[in-house]
């Protein structure tokens, strides 16, 4: 998992409440054998004017010009501003994979659905909960100023606006540590690689038949 | 110091480290993989720039998407084909042993593990499939895992686990003739409920269990998950060791002697402490039949459909009422009076040769059930999802009764049909396909669990990928079951058999 360092990036405002995971990545795309490649179908039903299916060339599909991610000023956005209960609905981890594949590393919202929230940390996305009025303010400022960039300082636990205004946020210390260090469960286990090797060495003596191929 | 259970011994032997809160890094000896739950795990490895920790612990076999007729033509469904090809290429890339589609050793992952001696007593065995508990029949600690855990085991050879509690289910005495492993495990689930094993590892013990063939033990352990337990196991005895002798991956020569000496210790000590113990009198058991939508809704063949009014709680009563409405059954109906319209023969749990060899042996029940089945006009398609198109005069399948055993039913006037013809699919196989929706794993509408098996109203018509997977799965099972000598040994029986039950139990 990529380490999360301080991020300064354009913020894209998705002004809807209760965005569910089927809106984030519609079910027909779950047939994939990969966890990458979902980016072009992120928010598929809102983003395109036609119906999407896996295997289609998305570059040839008609874009919905009104959808926020299709607007020039939000190209390259890595921070998503969202409303209440973001990521509700089915538990599919594909929703997080799609956001990540599109380039998002941070989602800021007043609240998140629980499973989605947890899935974010497993995949290196930082979900930030800020008070509704703060999120409102960020929405307003983003929409008012093209090129508006936010800075997310995970170590300092703050979101900083271009004017230098800082908003602090809470995060579980262990999850913060994992994101800062780029540690997923596997990364954490591999910190004990020496112990695993020592165990194997011992077992190889005790029960060598377990190590025959 | 108090004694240890088999589970305690297996756990202790595989503990790499343990945190103060009990979080344990558990070492995995055997990792079985198949094409459905492994692709994203391999991709995750690649994305993180990691390599498998110990490829010689991994054995791969495509089993969910493999066609069972004319494999030379390859796989026609593109999604299935891509999954199988992805497994092939991942195994090639990392040097993992794979029994490919056309390898004679190819088969269902839970059958080939023991068959090849890739599952050995004393091992920890995992696979991305909830019925991995099957391997516990050999004194192994075996359980199913999700895709993220598949990746974790590939990368680290370990899993992050917390220890479960010990539950002993002891079946004393001998099963009467014609009462099988499947009846035993259903009776157990009927007793403790589908959540009875939650948070526990079940040791199935007692004379009745140890009198079972290893295949029968596999059937029992397979259904540990239906009792809520992630793992079920049987301690090692002579039958276990005899079964393992000479298997391809089993140790040989002096190493075999050493292994056997160590396996002999895989029994629970006399003074071992179990958190819970349940005792059954196996000699009292009769063939079991489920009447509802859950494996715990089960009674003996000599009983009647129970009355929800007698349920001990409102919740239970509600569940029973829904199930009865769903099954279109009335309380008080004798089980033997239920007419069968369709019969499904062969199954996932009873997929082992031992079950296939079972016959209509039960002297008390055979005649009556035979009569009823005949009256119902049963259709029979061994090893395949049964069901017939509507408008055939016999209607869509209503044979929802789950006669959960081999050897119970003789079906006269049956009909055999070739594979692959389009028809309504009974939901029988759905449980094998249940779980994370994904390629070829479409969910039926409505909530999972309730809703399976309703032939009349909700067969899986209109879910072609499901029908395909389901038929392939059973066909595949049949190939495994009836391969070689077993096939000819069973050939006569396939026409008169046998095991009737809806895999909805699984």
Automatic annotation (TrEMBL), chain A:
Keywords: Amino-acid biosynthesis, Branched-chain amino acid biosynthesis, Leucine biosynthesis, Lyase. Its EC number is 4.2.1.33. Pathway: Amino-acid biosynthesis; L-leucine biosynthesis; L-leucine from 3-methyl-2-oxobutanoate: step 2/4. It holds the Pfam family Aconitase_C. It is an enzyme of class 4 (lyase). GO terms for biological process: L-leucine biosynthetic process. GO terms for cellular component: 3-isopropylmalate dehydratase complex. GO terms for molecular function: 3-isopropylmalate dehydratase activity. InterPro entries: 3-IsopropMal_deHydase_ssu (IPR004431), Aconitase/3IPM_dehydase_swvl (IPR015928), AconitaseA/IPMdHydase_ssu_swvl (IPR000573), IPMI_Swivel (IPR033940), LeuD (IPR050075). Gene3D superfamilies: Aconitase, domain 4. Residues 1-132 form the Aconitase A/isopropylmalate dehydratase small subunit swivel domain. It catalyses: (2R,3S)-3-isopropylmalate = (2S)-2-isopropylmalate. Catalyzes the isomerization between 2-isopropylmalate and 3-isopropylmalate, via the formation of 2-isopropylmaleate. Belongs to the LeuD family. LeuD type 1 subfamily. Heterodimer of LeuC and LeuD. This is 3-isopropylmalate dehydratase small subunit. It comes from Thiohalobacter thiocyanaticus. The lineage of its organism: Bacteria, Pseudomonadati, Pseudomonadota, Gammaproteobacteria, Thiohalobacterales.
């Amino acid at each position: 998992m990529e380490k999360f360092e301080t991020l300064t990036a354009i913020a894209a405002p998705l002004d809807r409440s209760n965005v569910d995971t089927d809106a984030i990545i519609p079910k027909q795309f779950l047939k994939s054998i990969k966890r990458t490649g979902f980016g072009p179908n992120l928010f598929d039903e809102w983003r395109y004017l036609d119906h999407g299916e896996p295997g289609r060339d998305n570059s040839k599909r008609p874009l919905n010009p009104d959808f926020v991610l299709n607007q020039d000023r939000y190209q390259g956005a890595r921070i998503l501003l969202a409303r209440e209960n973001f990521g509700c609905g089915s538990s599919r981890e594909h929703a997080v994979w799609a956001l990540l594949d599109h380039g998002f590393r941070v989602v800021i919202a007043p609240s998140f659905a629980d499973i989605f929230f947890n899935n974010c940390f497993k995949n290196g996305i930082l979900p930030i909960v800020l008070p509704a009025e703060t999120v409102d303010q960020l929405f307003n400022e983003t929409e008012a100023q093209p090129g508006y960039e936010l800075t997310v300082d995970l170590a300092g636990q703050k979101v900083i606006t271009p004017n230098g205004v800082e908003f602090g946020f809470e995060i579980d210390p262990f999850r913060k540590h994992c994101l800062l260090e780029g540690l997923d469960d596997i990364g954490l286990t591999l910190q004990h690689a020496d112990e695993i090797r020592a165990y194997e060495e011992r077992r190889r003596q005790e029960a060598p038949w377990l190590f025959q191929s | 110091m108090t004694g240890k259970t088999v589970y305690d011994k297996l756990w202790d032997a595989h503990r790499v480290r343990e945190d103060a809160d009990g979080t344990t890094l558990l070492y995995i000896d055997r990792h079985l993989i198949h094409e459905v739950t492994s692709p994203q795990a391999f991709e995750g490895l690649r994305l993180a720039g990691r390599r498998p920790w110990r490829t010689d612990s991994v054995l791969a076999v495509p089993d969910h998407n493999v066609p069972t007729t004319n494999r030379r033509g390859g796989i026609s469904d593109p999604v299935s084909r891509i999954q199988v090809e992805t497994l092939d290429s991942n195994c090639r890339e990392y040097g993992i042993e794979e029994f490919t589609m056309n390898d004679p050793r190819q088969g269902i992952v839970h059958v080939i593990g023991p068959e090849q001696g890739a599952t050995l007593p004393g091992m920890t065995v995992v696979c991305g499939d909830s019925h991995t508990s099957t391997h516990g029949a050999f004194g192994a600690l075996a359980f199913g895992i999700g895709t993220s855990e598949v990746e974790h085991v590939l990368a680290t050879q370990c899993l992050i686990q917390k220890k479960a509690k010990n539950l002993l289910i002891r079946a004393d005495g001998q099963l009467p003739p014609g009462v099988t492993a499947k009846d035993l495990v259903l009776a157990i689930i009927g007793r403790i409920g589908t959540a009875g094993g939650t948070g526990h590892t079940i040791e199935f013990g007692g004379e009745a269990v140890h009198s079972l063939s290893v295949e029968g033990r596999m059937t029992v352990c397979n259904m540990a998950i239906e009792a809520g337990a992630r793992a079920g196991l049987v301690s090692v005895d002579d039958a276990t060791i005899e079964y393992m002798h000479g298997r391809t991956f089993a140790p040989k020569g002096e190493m075999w002697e050493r292994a056997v000496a160590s396996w002999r210790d895989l029994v629970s000590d006399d003074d071992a402490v179990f958190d819970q113990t349940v005792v059954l009198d196996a000699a009292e058991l009769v063939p079991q039949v489920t009447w509802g939508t859950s494996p715990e809704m089960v009674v003996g063949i000599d009983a009647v459909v129970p009355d929800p009014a007698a349920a001990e709680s409102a919740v239970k009563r509600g569940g029973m009422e829904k199930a009865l409405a769903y099954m279109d059954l009335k309380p008080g109906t004798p089980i033997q009076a239920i007419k069968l319209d369709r019969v499904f023969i062969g199954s996932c749990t009873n997929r082992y040769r031992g079950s296939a060899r079972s016959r209509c042996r039960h002297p008390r029940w055979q005649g009556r059930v035979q009569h009823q089945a005949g009256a119902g006009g049963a259709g029979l398609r061994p090893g395949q999802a049964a069901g017939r198109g509507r408008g055939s005069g016999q209607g869509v399948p209503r044979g929802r009764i789950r006669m959960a055993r081999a050897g119970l039913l003789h079906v006269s006037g049956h009909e055999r049909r070739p594979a692959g013809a389009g028809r309504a699919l009974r939901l029988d196989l759905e449980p094998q396909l249940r779980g994370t929706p994904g390629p070829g794993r479409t969910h039926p509408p409505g909530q999972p669990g309730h809703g399976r098996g309703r032939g009349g109203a909700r067969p899986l018509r209109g879910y072609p990928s499901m029908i395909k997977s389901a038929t392939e799965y059973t066909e595949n099972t049949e190939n495994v079951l009836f391969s070689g000598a077993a096939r000819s040994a069973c050939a006569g029986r396939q026409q008169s058999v046998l095991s009737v039950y809806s895999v909805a139990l699984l």
